[in-house]
Amino acid sequence: MAAAQGVALNPLITNVDVYGNEASSNNNMMLASLKHQFSRRFSTEVQFAWAKSMDDGSGPYESDPYPYNPEYARGRSDFNVGKSFKIFGMWQPVLFHGIQN
Known about the structure:
The protein is mostly beta strands.
């Protein structure tokens, strides 16, 4: 009854903000990988990623600077990683010779 009449239910709360999740995003990415087996026990791999991520707002609690037209806020995402490069290898040593199951 008090809420319908506009009376505050808790006098310590004077303002409530509401944030919506109304943003749109897209991600374009190219992945390239090369693998080489040097011997039975050693191999290497190289991976390269080239990406571009765009959105209207990356944060979940972000106040839009252009609330009337979200397309004006479109730009690179906060989590955009343009290029990344990884190189790694695996070596499998023989610890015990001559043991058979």
